[in-house]
Amino acid sequence: MERNMAEENKKNLVFIEEVTTNVDEVQNRVLHEILTRNANVEYLQCLNLNGRTEREAFKKVVLVITYEDIQSDINRIANGDRSPILCSQPIFSLISPTNVVPLLVSRNPMSTCWDIYY
Known about the structure:
The chain is mainly alpha-helical. It has one domain (2-117). Helices cover 50% and strands 7% of the residues. The chain is built from 5 helices and 3 strands. It has helices at 2-21, 23-37, 42-46, 55-61, 67-78; strands at residues 94-95, 103-105, 115-117. The chain has a 3-stranded mixed beta sheet, with no helix packed on it. The model has no long low-confidence stretch (mean pLDDT 81).
């Protein structure tokens, strides 16, 4: 048991060292994976990213956005539209406990899709 825990701790430390030492490479790889999985979503198609997955292409066409910029897309999802609007995978949860701006929360840290919390 102790040996397994020690091995697991060692693996975790190696992972942390890798992602903190090679930040630029890790970010580039993660962005590439996200863009590859979501190349055909409506949002990216409307921005004419055209399936490109390199960082520079992404930075040229995708600007910082606000909730209001994608509110109509979120409303479509909230109203049951299951087409790939913002994400190629289905949105997991749509919860509205209060009248505040929705909060997008990933249920799985490795997921490229988000839960939407109202």
